[in-house]
Write a structure and sequence with these properties.
mainly beta, five-stranded mixed beta sheet, 1 helix
Length: 191
């Protein structure tokens, strides 16, 4: 069984009637006096809310598209042009990629392999950063030392930078090959 009431809203001079609908006692769709719309919630707190805080195990918003289409969520502060699309999240089904846009420009891409491109959609590695900045990648620590961990299937080690002394170091042997040599077994080969 279903029951419900209705609320009339005016948008651009046109009246729209929205119904509060429940099925077998479960809220399916509801509106409140402030114009908020809810799905599976009796009193929506936001413009559009799916589910009830603290009680719904899962809530899903599905954007369905053709196999060669796109689905997008747009963020804007105007009704047309760039102001209507200042920010956007776009999923492209033709190549199964996702793009995140700010100030109307693509900034971050994720390709179908899960590789991430920042500043580029031509992604060559799991993380590919492209920028005209000479140091496009920053690792920052809240103390006087920061580092990057390197790991393969045999071992791992970190390369650290100590700001108070302005030097790099590692906690294990750091072999440097001789110029023109293919490998070195000494810490630093000089000839």
């Amino acid at each position: 069984s279903s029951s419900g009431g209705s609320v009339t809203h005016t948008l651009d001079g046109v009246n729209y009637t929205l119904s509060n609908l429940s099925t077998n006692g479960d809220i399916v769709f509801a509106t409140n006096g402030s114009g908020n719309v809810g799905v599976k919630v009796s009193v929506p707190s936001y413009d559009f809310q799916i589910g009830t805080y603290g009680s719904d195990a899962d809530s899903t918003l599905a954007l369905a598209s053709a196999t060669d289409g796109t689905g997008s969520i747009r963020f804007g502060d105007g009704t047309s042009g760039t102001s209507a699309n200042s920010g956007k999240i776009v999923y492209d089904h033709s190549n199964n990629s996702m793009a995140f846009l700010t100030s109307t420009s693509p900034r971050v891409y994720i390709n179908s392999s899960g590789n991430v491109g920042i500043g580029t959609s031509s992604i060559d590695r799991p993380l590919h950063v492209e920028s005209n900045n000479d140091a496009p990648f920053q690792v920052e620590s809240t103390d006087d030392t920061t580092g990057i961990m390197f790991k393969d299937n045999n071992s791992s080690n970190a390369l650290f930078y100590r700001g108070t002394g302005n030097y790099f170091y590692t906690t294990s042997r750091f072999n440097v090959g001789d110029l023109g040599a293919t490998a070195s077994s000494t810490a630093l080969g000089v000839s």
